[in-house]
Amino acid sequence: MEAREIHLKADGLKLVGELHVPSEDGIHPALCICHGIPAAPPDPTDRGYAQLAQRFCHAGFATLIFNFRGTG
Q1: What 8-state DSSP symbol labels residue 28?
Q2: What is the mean pLDDT of residues 7-21?
Q3: Within 10 Å of residue 39's Cβ, how many Cβ atoms?
Q4: What does the pLDDT read at residue 56?
Q5: What is the secondary structure of 27-49 as a DSSP string?
Q6: What is the pLDDT of residues 16-59, one digit of tens each?
Q7: Which helix (H) or strand (E) holds 33?
Q8: What is the sign of the dihedral through the CA atoms of 26, 28, 32 and 33?
Q9: Higher pLDDT pick, 26 / 70
């Protein structure tokens, strides 16, 4: 599995995301995980969406997670 940071632009603002790609060659189904808008700071011990993205990746899915503008 490979995980790499990606940068997207929305209305001139930079959004940061992480793309998880399976190690196996070939075409993979893809998922984009869009989080809910947090009401409180995240628990630093909760790996949350990154851990979920890794689990999908190990199941063969290319998986993108990102922070909406103003939340990350």
Answers
A1: -
A2: 90
A3: 5
A4: 96
A5: ---EEEE-PPPPSSPPPTT--HH
A6: 899 999 999 999 999 999 877 767 777 778 777 889 999 999 99
A7: strand 30-33
A8: negative
A9: 26
Chain length of the chain? 72
| Structure token digits, residue 69 | 């503008």
Q: Domain segments of the chain: what residues?
A: 2-66
CA distances from 46 to 22, 27, 49 (A): 23, 31, 9
Relative to beta strand 13-21, strand 2-10 is antiparallel
Q: How confident is the model at residue 70 (pLDDT cuts 50, 70, 90)?
A: low
DSSP state of 43: P
Write out the two tokens for 26.
Answer: 């070939």
Record the tokens describing residue 33, joined without a space: 């995980």
